Amino acid sequence: MTPTRHTVEWGNKVIEFSLLRTDRKRVAIEVNPDLSVLVKVPTTAELEPVLGVVRKKARWILRQQRYFGQFAPRTPPRRFVSGETHLYAGRRYRLKVHTVDGAQFVKLAGGYLHVYCRYAGALDAKRQLLEDWYLQQAVRVMQQRLETCIDHRVFRDLALPPMSIRRLRKRWGSCTKSGRVLLNLDLIRAPRNCIDYVITHELCHLLVPEHSSAFFRLLDRVQPDWLERKTRLEALLV
Ligand SMILES: [Zn+2]
Asked: 10 Å Cβ neighbour count for 154?
């Protein structure tokens, strides 16, 4: 039998796994060095209880993935030289570094991310220029996405919330008690549809604070494919 693909949510993580029905009595879970997860089950097993077993073992699965993950090749440290690729809006762009006498700036043109810098060899200066550029784009794009996402009938009683963009360590977004939406600066590297997933999730929190079943019912209603977007976002940026 060919394995089928499934996902289980655990906290803010999504565990993807292949389910293989075999001639066996118990459920067995394997985490492979390439971080893939294989769940072997008896041929007649029903899906719901299997998902329950995977959820129960989630902590162990994630620990195994972290263990194998440390041997995986890491993204080499960024050098900000011509030819290096950087993500923006879900696409990889090559850098072109130019030396200029006048104003320094960054511009996306002709499929390249151009960095105009006074000292092309100055790593910190280039990093800062790009960082500032990402922030400028994030402010513009995320404000626009927020205005688009809130334009759903479910949110008709909400006023447009204030928004801040930060470098958040462990989350894509959150919202404060006062109703401010915080978004992770890194989201600007992801496609718009992933940004919309995070914003919509936070907008739903303005109506239902906890991750209760009411919350997920609401989210499903506004954005039925939110789990796909979340998986895509994490595959791209985590
Ligand atoms: Zn949440």
From this structure: 16
What's the pTM value of the predicted model, to 2 decimals? Answer: 0.69
pLDDT tens-digit readout, 71-93: 665 556 788 999 999 999 999 99
Cβ–Cβ under 8 Å, residues 54 and 61: yes
**Where does the chain show beta strands of DSSP type E?**
4-10, 13-22, 28-31, 37-42, 85-88, 91-99, 105-109, 112-117, 163-166, 173-175, 181-184
Give the Å distance between the CA of 194 and the centre of ligand 1: 15
* Residue extent(s) of CATH 3.30.2010.10 domains in the chain: 142-237
Residues 190 and 232: their CA atoms lie apart, in Å, by 9
Cα 215 to ligand 1 centre (Å): 9
Query: Residue holding tokens 């109506």?
Result: 207
174-185, pLDDT tens digit by residue? 999 899 999 999
Annotate 2-26 with DSSP letters as a single string. --EEEEEEETTEEEEEEEEEES-SS
* Cα 142 to ligand 1 centre (Å): 18
Assigned CATH for 142-237? 3.30.2010.10
Sign of the dihedral through C-alpha 47, 48, 49, 50:
positive
DSSP 74: P
Span from the CA of 165 to the centroid of ligand 1 (angstroms): 17
CA of 168 to the centre of ligand 1 (A): 14
Cα of 8 from ligand 1 centre, angstroms: 16
Look up residue 4 and give its two tokens. 């089928």
